[in-house]
What we know:
Elements: E1 28-30, H1 33-42, E2 51-60, H2 64-77, E3 83-84, E4 97-100, E5 110-112, H3 118-133, E6 145-153, E7 156-164, H4 170-187, H5 202-212, H6 215-228, E8 253-259, H7 262-275, H8 279-299, H9 301-304, E9 306-313, E10 330-337, H10 344-360, H11 366-373, E11 391-400, E12 412-416, E13 428-436, E14 439-447, H12 453-472
Parallel strand pairs: 5-6, 11-13
Antiparallel strand pairs: 1-4, 2-7, 2-12, 3-4, 6-7, 8-14, 9-10, 13-14
Helix pairs in contact: 2-4, 8-10, 8-12
Amino acid sequence: MTIPTTFHVTRPVPNTSTEVRPATRGAAVPATHTQQERLLGGRHVHQVNNNIALGLRFEGRLDVPLLERSLNLLAERHETLRTVFPEVDEEAGEEHVMLLLPPEPRALPVLEADDEPEETRLPRVLALLAAHANQPFDLAAGPLFRPVLGRVSESLHVLSMTTDHIVFDAWSARIMINDLLTIYATGQGDDVPALPELSVQFPDFALWQHGHLDGKQLERQLGYWRKQLDGITPIPASGLADPHAPTGAEPGVTKLLEPIGPELSSAVEEFAARERVTSAVLVSAALKAAMWRLRLETLGEDAAGDVATFGSLANRTRPETDAMVGYVATPATFRTRFTGRTPFAELVRLEAQTLFNAMRHQRIPFSLISRELAPEQYGIRFREPGSVPIYLNFDMDMVEDEREPLLHPSGLDVQPIGIPMPEVPRGGLRVIGYQRKDGIALELRYRHDLYGRDWATRFVRLIHAFLQHGVDAPGTPIEELPA
């Protein structure tokens, strides 16, 4: 397809309604505020974190031509999988836009490792899929949806579906997988409910965002964050440093897993139910108590209790966007202020209020917050990793490690499988909570050039200790809890 060099951008009529509606469009639609930040700050910077690879393992009789047709129908159903972002003249003030490519049948590439011994063939195929997934995307030319099939044997296949983060978020993953399996099952005659028509598409959301976030609505949302972030930057420094960090180590990520166990996990869930909060709030409170303890050693008492983490909010505030694939999520800063005399139960309530207020004000994308409150940080996440501040990222929605069963089309057992992608060591620290059948588990991912193994082990066990003793003695000040 030849991409035009000039565009007609249809602007929405200013609308204060909270409802996302199908919009009249021109040849191009303004990119969302988050997409514009990426295009301005890092259009040509390849970071593997921007490539999202979803893996599905198929055991049984896979109809490859039907899978290929199903993937094409999936891209036809979700417009965001067919969008591109043409180059513009930024110096002339041209606006970054998204263009929608027409649906066109695309062949499904198949990768094999026939020369590999059978016992190592699956890891080899996964490595080939990861190398394919890690290839940079051309945002101007596309396509930004790149499926490829790995054949391990006649009865074992792995599908990798890679998208660029600019058109895709974590919420979209389950939608895309479910829709694909439904389309495939329908195509082979299985008795499954047909997919409902989508009420809105991602370009409708983009137009709504530009019309909705204006005037008083924008100032109302921005006013909260202006007050909440007073004295700190939108991407907040964690204040966590390892005085014995390795010297001369290459940047990279090491993972450390800390199971909480079924007994404590049950106690956490019971405590959360009594307090009318989620388990994630308790984990976040314990995390900030652990950060307070470590910050106390390096920053002193006055600064130790002003703790901010960085995370992501789904931003699916309207039911019409629930079944829509697109990049709707927005990063957010979660700041909580307390002292060592704060009882654990009070810290939980403070943390619940922090998260609740952030969710109430998630409609304003982080890109607008940083552009208005800290222009020096606007676009910094999309530049080279070394330019990003040292912060802690917490995935506050407990990740379902053992998810609901997927649809199994006739003759197939389908399971999710990880594509072994490398990770960019941004931020320095990331804590992920997993909700498993045998209880909660915490995973710490840390930059091993900034933090040593001993420091990382102590940190994750501090979180565990504050969680355990905080639940056991919630009225005790955190400075008196054994850690």
